[in-house]
Automatic annotation (TrEMBL), chain A:
Matching InterPro entries: ATPase_NBD, Hydant_A_N, Hydantoinase_A, Oxoprolinase-like
Ranges for domain Hydantoinase A/oxoprolinase: 197-397
Entry protein name: ATP-utilizing protein
PANTHER family the record matches: 5-OXOPROLINASE RELATED (PTHR11365), HYDANTOINASE_OXOPROLINASE (PTHR11365:SF10)
Ranges of residues in domain Hydantoinase/oxoprolinase N-terminal: 2-177
UniProt GO molecular function: hydrolase activity
Pfam family, one: Hydantoinase_A
Automatic annotation (TrEMBL), chain B:
Record-linked InterPro entries: S-Me-THD-like_C, S-Me-THD_C_sf, S-Me-THD_N, S-Me-THD_N_sf
Protein's UniProt name: DUF917 domain-containing protein
One matching Pfam family: S-Me-THD_C
S-Me-THD N-terminal domain span: 8-163
Gene3D superfamilies to which the protein is assigned, alphabetical: CV3147-like (2.40.390.10), CV3147-like domain (3.40.1610.10)
Domain S-Me-THD-like C-terminal: 166-350
Length: 537, 352
C-alpha cells in the first residue's frame, strides 16, 4: 500500500492507496508550524481509519509514502529560514555585463546574497570552451567564501545544460578546498536561459539547510507512526524524487501543489483529457489535463518575484473558495476567512456568512449545523451558488482550446459549492475522495527523466537525433527508479534556434514511468551516480 | 533633447517587443543590459533627428545572433564599445551620435546601453521602424548608403572590419562570423551623416516604443483594454483574437520558419513566421503581409508574444500596423516584401 500526503498552508491531506491502486481511506487534518506533529497526526488518522477490511491499517503494510509540500515555496515568499548563498558563475569573459542576482527583488537579494563571483569557464552553444576553467582562480574564490563564512554554494556555467563538465569540475575544486559545504549545480536544476536557471539554483542553495530539516522532520513523523517504508517528495512536473535528491533539490517542489491536485483528479475520475477545477478555502484553481499531465504555462515563471525557467502548470486562479465572504448583493470573494472557516462560518457557530454557508442553506451540502443558516434566504443562497458556477464556467471556457465537449472534474473541499455543475459544461464530475485529490495525486506520482539541450541536426538526420534524445530521456527515467517497460515519452519539444543557420535545434524530451517499488534502494544510489557528485548531507 | 533614465527603459522594451513583430529577440536581456549600463554610467541623452548637425557622424549599433544564445551566453558588456572603436579607427573620425538600427526587440536596448557607456547622445529613430531578419533590410540601403565598413566584435575582445562589395554580401559575411563566434556578436555599421538622417531613418521610434509600452502598462493596470489602446497608437487594424491551437515549426534555409493557427471570433487566423511574422490569413484569405507590422499581443496584458514564445493554448490578439511608407516603394518591397521571403504574392494593403 502507498500513502500520499499533501502538506498545504492550511490543511495536511492524506490518502491511502491499496495495491490495486484503489483509494482505501482519506483524511484531512490541520498543518502545524513544527512540521512533524502535523504530518504525524495526518498519518495516525489515516492508519486509524477503517481500511478495505474495515479495520485500521498496519504501518508495516505501507510500501512507500509520497509527500507534496509547500514549505519551500512559502519560505521563499516569506523570506525566512533562508541561508546566505555564494553564487559562482563560470563564463568569463562573457556574461560580465549581468552579474548573478541582477534581476532579483532587492529585499530577497539582501537576504540571500552572501557574495557573487564571476570566473572563467563555460561553453559556447556547440560545446566549445568560452575560456578554460582556471583552478587557481577557483581556489581564490574558495578562500573568499571561507572568509565570509558561507556554507551553501550555487554554481552556474554557460550552456551547462548541454555541457555540464565545468560545473562538476568547479564543484570538485571548491569542495576540495572547503570540505563540508552544500553545492547546488545549475545543470541539475534548470534549462537553457542562464539568469533564470542560475536564479533557481541560488534559490535552491538558500533552501538546502531547510530541506535537510524538513526532510528529517518528515522522516521522524513517519518513523513515529511506525512506518519504515521509504518516502519520496513530489516535484513540479508530478514526478517523484527520493529523499537524497530532495535534500539537494528542494526548489523542484515549488509547483507540486497544483500538479498533484490535477493528477489526482485525473486518477480519481479516470479521465486523461479534461479541465480540473480545484476549489479550496480561498481560491479555485482551473487547469487543463492533456494526456494525464497538466498543460504547462508558456514562458518564464516567477517565484516570489524571482524569474526562473521552471515549467509550471498553466493554472488560472479565481478568488472563490469555501471560506469566501459573501457580500450583501450575493457576490462571493475574493476575501476569505481562509483556515478560520471552522471557527467563523455560520454553520460552525461563527458570525460570518461564507460560501460554505450558502451551500448548506441551499441544501447542496450537509456541513456543520444546518440550523445556523435557517435565517439565510434559500433563493438568495441559490442565486449565490449560480453566480459561482457561472464565474467558474467562464474561467474553464477561457482555458479550453477548442469548442469540442470538455469534461470537467471538480475536486477540493470547496467543490461542494458547485453541486449543479457548470453552465455550458454538461459533463461535470466530482469523484469519490474529491476532497483529498492532491494527496491522491502525490500517491500515484511517477518517476521521470528529461533531456533538454541544443543539438546540431544535420540535414536528413533529424529522426536519428530525436531517437537518440528519446532513448536518453527514457534511460534517465529508469536511472531515477522507473520500472523498465513502463517508461513512455510524454513530451517532445523541438525549437530551431532563430537567426542561426546550421540546423542548431533545442530539443526537450520528457519521459515518465511507474515507480519500481522492488528496487527502491537501488534507485537512490542510481540518482547519486547520475549527479556525478557526492552528497554533502 | 531629453534624457532616458532607468524608469523609461521598461516601457521602451515592452514597446520594442511589440514593434519587433514577433522577432528581434525578447528584449528582457537587453532591458537588463541597458538598466545596468544606466545604473553605472547615468542617463542617456536623446536628440531628435532635427537636432543633429549636418556633419555629424551617426553610428548605428546592434547585436546579431540567436535570441536563445543571448539568453544563455550573456554579453561581456564591452562588445558594442569594441565594435564602435574598431569602426572609428577605419573611419578616421569619432562617432558623434549613436542610433538603433532596429527598434524592434533587443536591438532597441543595445544602443541605449552603448550610449550610457560612451556618454554619446542617441538619435530618436531607427533604420527599420520595426524588426527585420537581415542586415541589408535598412532604409539607408534605399538611399545608397553602404553598410560597409562594418565592424564586428565578439565577447572575447576580437574585432573584424568587413568591407564588402554590397550590403547583402556584408550580411552573409557577418552571419558566418557570428556563427563562428558562438552566435552572438555586436555590430557597428551603416554610418550616416547628420544630413542623411531624414531619408535614412524612421523618426521618433524610441519615443513611439516608450509611448506604446507605457500605454499598454497603464491600460492593463487600470483594467482597460491594453490591446485596443496599442492598436490606436499604432494606427493599426484588429485582425483577430483567440487561442493558439497549433504551432508548427521547421528549419528551412537556415531560418526558423513556422506557422501558427489561432481560433477565435468565429474565424481561423493563420500566421506564417520566419523569425518575424510575415503573413496573416483569415479563413484562408491574406489579410496582412510583410513589410507591414503583424504584432501578436497577449489579450489580457497586452504584452508582446514572440514567435519563439508562441505556444498552444495562449490567448492572443493579432494586430497589423502600417510600415514606414518607404518600404512600399518598389526598391523597399524588393528588400522586404513577401516575394523576398519566397511567397508568390504581392504586398497586401491594410484594411479593416
Amino acid at each position: 500500500m502507498r500513502i500520499g500526503i499533501d502538506v498545504g498552508g492550511t490543511n495536511t491531506d492524506a490518502a491511502l492507496l491499496g495495491d490495486d491502486n484503489r483509494v482505501v481511506a482519506g483524511t484531512k487534518s490541520p498543518t502545524t508550524a513544527d512540521v512533524t506533529s502535523g504530518v504525524a497526526a495526518a498519518v495516525a488518522a489515516l492508519l486509524a481509519a477503517p481500511g478495505a477490511d474495515g479495520r485500521p491499517t498496519d504501518p508495516a503494510a505501507v510500501d512507500a509514502v509520497m509527500i507534496g509540500t509547500t514549505h519551500f515555496l512559502n519560505a521563499l515568499i516569506e523570506g525566512e529560514r533562508l541561508a546566505e548563498v555564494a553564487a559562482v558563475r563560470l563564463g568569463l569573459p562573457a556574461t560580465e555585463a549581468l552579474p548573478p542576482m541582477v534581476d532579483w527583488p532587492e529585499r530577497l537579494r539582501d537576504v540571500i546574497r552572501g557574495g557573487t563571483w564571476l570566473c572563467h569557464g563555460g561553453r559556447e552553444y556547440d560545446g566549445r570552451m568560452i575560456s578554460p576553467l582556471d583552478p587557481a582562480e577557483l581556489r581564490r574564490v574558495a578562500a573568499d567564501i571561507r572568509a565570509r563564512g558561507l556554507r551553501s554554494i550555487a554554481i552556474s556555467s554557460v550552456f551547462s545544460p548541454a555541457a555540464a563538465e565545468d560545473e562538476i569540475r568547479a564543484a570538485e575544486i571548491l569542495t576540495a578546498e572547503l570540505g563540508d559545504v552544500h553545492v547546488s549545480l545549475s545543470h541539475e536544476i534548470g534549462r537553457v536561459g542562464l539568469l533564470a536557471r542560475e536564479n533557481a539554483t541560488i534559490v535552491n542553495a538558500s533552501l538546502r539547510e531547510l530541506a535537510e530539516h524538513i526532510v528529517d522532520a518528515f522522516g521522524a513523523a513517519l518513523t513515529g507512526a511506525g512506518i519504515t517504508a521509504p518516502f519520496f517528495i513530489s516535484q513540479n512536473d508530478g514526478t517523484l524524487m527520493d529523499i537524497a535528491h530532495a535534500r539537494r533539490y528542494p526548489v523542484a517542489t515549488f509547483a507540486s501543489g497544483p500538479t498533484n491536485s490535477m493528477r489526482g483528479a485525473a486518477f480519481l475520475s479516470g479521465l486523461t483529457d479534461c479541465a480540473v477545477v480545484d476549489v479550496g478555502g480561498t481560491t479555485a484553481d482551473v487547469g487543463i489535463l492533456v494526456g494525464g499531465f497538466p498543460r504547462e504555462a508558456a514562458g518564464e515563471s516567477e517565484a516570489a518575484g524571482v524569474r526562473t525557467n521552471f515549467r509550471i502548470p498553466d493554472v488560472l486562479s479565481l478568488g472563490i473558495g469555501g471560506g469566501s465572504l459573501v457580500a450583501a448583493d450575493g457576490e462571493v470573494g475574493p476575501r476569505s476567512v481562509g483556515y478560520r472557516l471552522t471557527e467563523q462560518a455560520l454553520v460552525f457557530g461563527g458570525d460570518t456568512l461564507t460560501a460554505t454557508d450558502l451551500a448548506v442553506a441551499a441544501g447542496a451540502a450537509d456541513i456543520g449545523d444546518k440550523g445556523a443558516v435557517a435565517e439565510v434566504d434559500r433563493a438568495f443562497a441559490e442565486r449565490g451558488l449560480a453566480r459561482i458556477a457561472e464565474r467558474l464556467a467562464e474561467t474553464v471556457d477561457r482555458m479550453r482550446t477548442s469548442a469540442a465537449p470538455l469534461p470537467v472534474v471538480a475536486v477540493g473541499g470547496g467543490s461542494v459549492l458547485i453541486p449543479g455543475g457548470l453552465p455550458g459544461f454538461p459533463d461535470v464530475r466530482r469523484p469519490a475522495h474529491f476532497d483529498v485529490a492532491n494527496a491522491v495525486g502525490a500517491a500515484i506520482a511517477q518517476v521521470g527523466g528529461e533531456v533538454d539541450r541544443v543539438h546540431k541536426v544535420p540535414e536528413g538526420k533529424r529522426d536519428q537525433v530525436l531517437a537518440g534524445a528519446r532513448a536518453e530521456a527514457i534511460r534517465r527515467a529508469e536511472d531515477s527508479g522507473a520500472r523498465p517497460g513502463t517508461v513512455r515519452v510524454v513530451d517532445v519539444e523541438e525549437v530551431p534556434l532563430a537567426y542561426l543557420p546550421g540546423g542548431a535545434t533545442r530539443i526537450r524530451i520528457k519521459a515518465v514511468g511507474d515507480l519500481d517499488l522492488d528496487r527502491l534502494g537501488a534507485a537512490s544510489t542510481g540518482s547519486d551516480e547520475k549527479n556525478g557528485f557526492p552528497t554533502h548531507a | 533633447m531629453r534624457e532616458i533614465g532607468i524608469e523609461q527603459l521598461a516601457d521602451i522594451a515592452r514597446g520594442a517587443g511589440i514593434l519587433g513583430t514577433g522577432g528581434g529577440g525578447d528584449p528582457y536581456v537587453g532591458l537588463l543590459l541597458a538598466r545596468e549600463a544606466v545604473r553605472r554610467h547615468g542617463p542617456v541623452t536623446v536628440v531628435d533627428i532635427d537636432e543633429v548637425p549636418a556633419d555629424a557622424t551617426v553610428v548605428p549599433i546592434s547585436s546579431m545572433g540567436a535570441p536563445t544564445v543571448l539568453l544563455e551566453k550573456l554579453p561581456s558588456g564591452r562588445e558594442e564599445i569594441n565594435a564602435l572603436r574598431a569602426l572609428e579607427a577605419v573611419l578616421g573620425r569619432p562617432a558623434t551620435h549613436l542610433v538603433p538600427i532596429e527598434i524592434g526587440g533587443v536591438n532597441s536596448m543595445i544602443p541605449l546601453a552603448a550610449a550610457a557607456q560612451t556618454g554619446l547622445p542617441i538619435v530618436d529613430g531607427d533604420a527599420m521602424g520595426r524588426a527585420f531578419p537581415e542586415a541589408q533590410m535598412v532604409l539607408p540601403g534605399l538611399i545608397g548608403v553602404s553598410n560597409s565598413p562594418m565592424a564586428l566584435a565578439d565577447d572575447k575582445g576580437n574585432t573584424i572590419v568587413v568591407r564588402a562589395v554590397d550590403n547583402t554580401e556584408a550580411e552573409r559575411i557577418a552571419r558566418a562570423v557570428c556563427v563562428e563566434r558562438g552566435c552572438q556578436i555586436s555590430c557597428a555599421d551603416t554610418v550616416l551623416r547628420g544630413d542623411q538622417l531624414r531619408d535614412g531613418l524612421v523618426p521618433a521610434t524610441l519615443t513611439l516604443a516608450e509611448n506604446l509600452g507605457r500605454v499598454v502598462r497603464e491600460a492593463h493596470a487600470a483594467h482597460r483594454d491594453p490591446v485596443a489602446e496599442a492598436r490606436e497608437l499604432l494606427g493599426g487594424v484588429h485582425l483577430s483574437a483567440g487561442k493558439v491551437v497549433d504551432v508548427e515549426r521547421r528549419t528551412e534555409g537556415g531560418f526558423a520558419r513556422g506557422r501558427a493557427r489561432l481560433e477565435g471570433e468565429g474565424a481561423v487566423l493563420e500566421l506564417d513566421f520566419q523569425n518575424e511574422h510575415l503573413l496573416a490569413r483569415r479563413d484562408g484569405r491574406v489579410v496582412a503581409t510583410t513589410p507591414d507590422l503583424i504584432c501578436v499581443l497577449d489579450t489580457e496584458t497586452g504584452e508582446p508574444v514572440t514567435t519563439e514564445g508562441l505556444r498552444y493554448g495562449l490567448r492572443v490578439t493579432v494586430l497589423a500596423a502600417p510600415c514606414d511608407p518607404r518600404w512600399l516603394s518598389p526598391a523597399g518591397l524588393a528588400l522586404t516584401g513577401p516575394r523576398y521571403f519566397g511567397y508568390d504574392l504581392d504586398h497586401h494593403p491594410l484594411s479593416g
